[in-house]
């Protein structure tokens, strides 16, 4: 008994109650009835016709054919084994009831019970091949083989050989060896292929010593030590983390009397080097590979490209991708997927989409991993319509979405503040037979907490328990964080108690979140009680919690308590981090003790803790606050000498301080330095400079001026002057235009905004999505949908990109006024602008995104999740 000999993991296996399936179809409700025999004869007649696989009548029969009927038809054709085998393969692909592994196993049982062993052996080989991608399925199949042996069935050599191959592919090395032992006990003799398979299986799991012992044994039987076996040993040593031994084997292979190496050997070594971060050596090995006469394969390049992507080396990854194409090595699906994932994370979603289109142009079929990576990229940027377009493309290309796909979509909907839509989508997902995971519910909990609907998040948590999904620490931490942000740490602590009761481990993040929640509302003592609990549970791995207490105490200007906390940190063996010192610097600044804060900077240097930008920011902020602009400027110069680049906050502090001191020329010098250092100014910096321009022209005026209302006070000449000064300082024109237009539109000055937009377009520039949204929102709030439509079409004409949140309210508004044709036309225009190729396919998703959902309906569904297996929409 193969599976019982070694149970690597407990799997919930279904009872093989194949008789129960007979009730599914009327055809099999009476196994011995005439209708069943008539059906068998009728289908058998169709099978005798040429090209029977394309017979429409046969396809209609087989679509709902259960295992019992299939076994009867195979028995009828038992004399023709090729036909029986082809029919069984075909039926497994076509029949609703023979698609999953359990139903296929039921078919095996029925064939064995009819003593059709010859056919069973052929079907079994086919089924093992079908399990090459699923550990769960192959273990179920092995369990079934054990059961069938009890009633006299014995698997033959081809079945054993295919089983070894399958287990090796699935990285189940120990199980492979146990099957081999069972094979030998059954009197079978392994051949060279099986011998290599077993060595490779053991090595893939890092069992190098076991593999070497096995090799020693089989060498005595007359087998040779060839390149395949030695390459497996190189792999095993790499997997075990022993690269020196892997190189030793490689050198032995490379000798004149050695078995030689091949491109696979090189690729395995390169992968091993990449795994431990030795990327330069990996690249050199690739070059050495070419010197030795082996061209790097697609796998070699993909390994290196992935390693570069994982280490954030985007340019090197792109160079390798271009190199492989230049050398005629065509990227495969995995290569493209790695590149798409990297471009989504490190570059832009548009670049990733371009790579995806290139992949389709090359005739490759994206995998579900490819689609998920791109959908995740779109959702991260809030472009959920494009994400749903990809979902539609997946379905049209027969790539079935999995729960990971939908989790990305749930997360995208939550990121744009639409967790209710995510729940509505969940309802459809469950109805399609896809089961949610704890990750699904954690996304929803976090989404509802983010929009302040903690009560709904709590209902989501309760529904998890009702369907047998146990909430994990992320579920509770998300909820605790949401409650703490609402200023309710007492209620959050209730869930901490639930975690303890349910046996969910408390980690540093959960406890720190709750402690921070107590400290924020002034209940430091309650936070200290939890802190003691952290010490008892050994949850402290970083000085973060100490930093929280230091931050709170420094704000309360309590020097003695600060020193006590610092002492405890050192007592528990935690080294104060740069964050710790920065908090102390901040505390000294709050007391107005600038000299001591500067001394603290020097102390940091002495203990080897280099001050970071935040430490300098704290002191510069303090200097500016007390009007010591010259000293702040000097510290600004000093930090750059220490190779610490100023951040946007420091630039902003200096600009505001110079403007306040009436030294506008120095403020613009800071802007010039900022541009040279490649730091993009914030809207606050633009606002300070604009205020400075207005203030300089109002000198001597008795009018009270407030920067808060600057866009109500300026005229267009002030805006143009800022634009000109900004260009002189080397800034990007598009940024200043967007700032000015956005500010003016938000205070209702649309005519001035329109003038600047026209100026912008004349310069070949286009407003960003925030500007578009602001102007459309202005007209939407006054229910002037005609002007909304006019501006949307103007923006589309300019080539502006809209976010879903911009046009969704307008569509809903038009529909609420009964202007459905205009709403549909707007949707069509927007989809066309977004380069949606198949608008009919994406329209249902647009309807789903636009349609409003009542919170009570969503809550009702959540409550029903645990009470119905398949909730109805």
From TrEMBL:
Pfam families: PPR, PPR_1, PPR_2, PPR_3
PROSITE patterns to which the protein is assigned, alphabetical: PPR (PS51375)
InterPro entries xrefs: PPR_rpt (IPR002885), TPR-like_helical_dom_sf (IPR011990)
PPR repeat residue intervals: 191-225, 226-256, 262-296, 297-331, 332-366, 367-401, 402-436, 437-471, 472-506, 507-541, 577-611, 612-646, 647-681, 733-767
Keywords from the named record: Repeat
Family matches, as Gene3D superfamilies: Tetratricopeptide repeat domain
Taxonomic superkingdom: Eukaryota
Family of the protein in this entry: Belongs to the PPR family. P subfamily.
Protein name, as recorded: Pentatricopeptide repeat-containing protein
């Amino acid at each position: 008994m193969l599976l019982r000999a070694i149970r690597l993991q407990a799997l919930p296996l279904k009872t093989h109650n194949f008789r129960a399936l007979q009730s599914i179809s009327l055809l099999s409700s009476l196994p011995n009835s005439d209708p069943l025999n008539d059906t068998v004869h009728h289908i058998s007649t169709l099978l005798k016709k040429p090209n029977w696989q394309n017979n429409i009548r046969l396809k209609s029969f087989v679509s709902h054919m259960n295992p019992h009927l299939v076994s009867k038809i195979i028995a009828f054709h038992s004399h023709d084994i090729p036909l029986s085998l082809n029919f069984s393969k075909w039926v497994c692909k076509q029949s609703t009831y023979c698609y999953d592994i359990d139903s296929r196993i039921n078919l095996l049982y029925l064939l064995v019970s009819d003593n059709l062993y010859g056919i069973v052996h052929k079907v079994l080989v086919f089924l093992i091949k079908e399990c090459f991608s699923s550990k769960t399925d192959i273990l179920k199949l092995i369990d079934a083989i054990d059961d069938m042996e009890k009633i006299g069935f014995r698997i033959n050599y081809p079945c054993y050989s295919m089983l070894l191959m399958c287990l090796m592919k699935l990285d189940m090395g120990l199980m492979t060896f146990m099957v081999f032992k069972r094979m030998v006990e059954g009197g079978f003799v392994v051949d060279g292929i099986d011998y290599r398979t077993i060595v490779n299986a053991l090595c893939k799991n890092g069992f190098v010593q076991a593999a070497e012992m096995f090799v020693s044994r089989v060498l005595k039987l007359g087998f040779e030590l060839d390149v395949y076996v030695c390459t497996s040993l190189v792999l095993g040593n790499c997997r075990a983390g022993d690269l020196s031994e892997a190189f030793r084997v490689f050198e032995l292979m490379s000798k004149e009397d050695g078995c030689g190496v091949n491109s696979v050997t090189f690729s395995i070594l390169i992968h091993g080097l990449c795994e431990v971060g030795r990327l330069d050596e990996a690249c050199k090995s690739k070059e050495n590979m070419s010197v030795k006469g082996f061209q790097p394969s697609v796998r070699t390049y993909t390994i290196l490209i992935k390693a570069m992507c994982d280490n954030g080396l985007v340019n090197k990854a792109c160079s390798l991708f271009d190199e492989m194409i230049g050398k005629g090595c065509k990227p495969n699906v995995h290569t493209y997927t790695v590149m798409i994932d990297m471009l989504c994370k490190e570059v832009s979603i548009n670049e990733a989409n371009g790579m995806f289109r290139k992949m389709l142009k090359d005739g490759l079929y994206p995998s579900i991993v490819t689609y998920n990576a791109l959908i995740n990229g779109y959702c991260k940027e809030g472009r959920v319509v494009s994400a749903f377009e990809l979902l539609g493309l997946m379905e049209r290309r027969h790539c079935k979405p999995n729960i990971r796909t939908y989790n990305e979509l749930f997360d995208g909907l939550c990121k744009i503040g639409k967790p209710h839509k995510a729940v509505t989508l969940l309802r459809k997902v469950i109805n399609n037979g896809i089961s949610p995971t704890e990750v699904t519910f954690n996304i929803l909990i976090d989404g509802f907490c983010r929009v302040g609907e903690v009560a709904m998040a709590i209902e989501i948590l309760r529904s998890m328990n009702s369907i047998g999904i146990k909430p994990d620490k992320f579920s509770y931490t998300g909820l605790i964080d949401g409650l703490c942000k609402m200023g309710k740490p007492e209620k959050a602590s209730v869930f901490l108690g639930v975690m303890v009761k349910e046996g969910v481990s408390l980690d540093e993040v959960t406890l720190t979140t709750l402690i921070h929640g107590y400290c924020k509302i002034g209940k430091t003592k309650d936070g200290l009680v939890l802190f003691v609990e952290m010490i008892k549970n050994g949850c402290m791995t970083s000085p973060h919690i100490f930093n929280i207490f230091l931050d709170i105490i420094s704000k309360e200007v309590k020097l003695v308590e600060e020193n006590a906390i610092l002492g405890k940190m050192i007592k528990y063996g935690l080294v104060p981090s740069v964050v710790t010192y920065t908090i102390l610097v901040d505390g000294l600044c709050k007391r107005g003790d600038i000299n001591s804060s500067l001394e603290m900077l020097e102390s940091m240097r002495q203990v080897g803790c280099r001050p970071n930008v935040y430490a300098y920011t704290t002191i510069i902020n303090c200097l500016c606050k007390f009007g010591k602009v010259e000293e702040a400027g000097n510290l600004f110069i000093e930090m750059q000498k220490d190779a610490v680049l100023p951040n946007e906050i420091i630039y902003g502090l200096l600009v505001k301080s110079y403007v306040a001191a009436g030294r506008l020329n120095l403020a613009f010098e800071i802007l010039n330095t900022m541009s040279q250092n490649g730091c993009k100014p914030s809207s606050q910096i633009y606002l300070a400079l604009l205020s400075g321009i207005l203030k300089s022209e109002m000198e001597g005026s008795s009018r009270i001026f407030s920067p808060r209302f600057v866009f109500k006070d300026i005229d267009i000449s002030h805006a143009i002057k800022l634009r000109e000064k900004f260009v002189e300082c080397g800034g990007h024109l598009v940024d200043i235009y967007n700032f000015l237009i956005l500010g003016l539109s938000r205070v209702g000055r649309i005519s001035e905004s329109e003038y600047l937009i026209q100026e912008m377009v004349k310069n070949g520039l286009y407003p960003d999505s925030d500007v578009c949204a602001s102007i459309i929102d202005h007209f939407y709030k006054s229910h002037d949908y005609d002007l909304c439509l006019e501006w949307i079409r103007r923006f589309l004409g300019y080539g502006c990109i809209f976010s879903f949140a911009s046009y969704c309210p307008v569509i809903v508004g038009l529909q609420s006024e009964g202007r459905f044709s205009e709403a549909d036309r707007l949707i069509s225009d927007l989809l066309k602008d977004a380069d949606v190729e198949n608008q009919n396919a994406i329209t249902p998703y647009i309807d789903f995104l636009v349609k409003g959902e009542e919170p009570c309906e969503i809550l009702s569904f959540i409550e029903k999740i645990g009470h119905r297996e398949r909730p109805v929409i």
